[in-house]
Amino acid sequence: MQRLMCKGKIHRATVTEAELDYVGSITIDQKLMKEADIKPYEMVQVTSLKNATRWKTYAIPAPEGSGRICLNGPPAHLFSPGDIVIILSMAQMTDEEIETLRPRVVFVDGANAITSVEEHDLHWPEGVK
Q1: Which of 11, 64, 95, 114 has its CA 20 to 30 A from that of 33?
Q2: What are 74-112's pLDDT values in tens digits?
Q3: Contact yes or no for 55/75 (Cβ under 8 A)
């Protein structure tokens, strides 16, 4: 059996651009991609905190340190500059692969500069069996 797991997350990023006349995708500062373990052309889910819109597309790198978060193509109708989003990187994994999974959460400020990165162990909360 495989399970769909969150392997990386960019938390509360600010959309800097939305370009309708583009083939598609989301452009993400490559430093953020690296820290969240997102590879170029990997599928990601983008969720708006403003209106709960969810969009799945592939990630392409922007120059490191640029702070760019740009929704390209059709999602430009759904996301606007200034919107706060969560970008999730997911993977289908076997139970054996999950044993070594350490999801990374990248926290950013309003300019999409990294403020901290957390790596999580997978475990049940205390008292849960």
Answers
A1: 95
A2: 999 999 999 999 999 999 999 999 999 999 999 999 999
A3: yes
Q: Are 14 and 82 in contact, with CB atoms under 8 Å apart?
A: yes
Determine how β-strand 25-29 pairs with β-strand 69-72: antiparallel
Contact 18, 75 (CB under 8 A): yes
Q: What is the pLDDT of residue 22?
A: 87
DSSP 35-73: HTT--TT-EEEEEETTT--EEEEEEEEEPTT---EEEES
Q: Where are the domains of the chain?
A: 2-119
Q: What is the pLDDT of residues 23-33, one digit of tens each?
A: 779 999 999 99
> Dihedrals φ, ψ of 121, to 5°?
-85, 145
3-state secondary structure of 105: strand
What amino acid positions are annotated as catalytic residues? 25, 58
In the structure encoding, which two tokens stand for residue 55, read together?
């969009």
CATH architecture of 2-119: Beta Barrel (2.40)
pTM of the model: 0.92
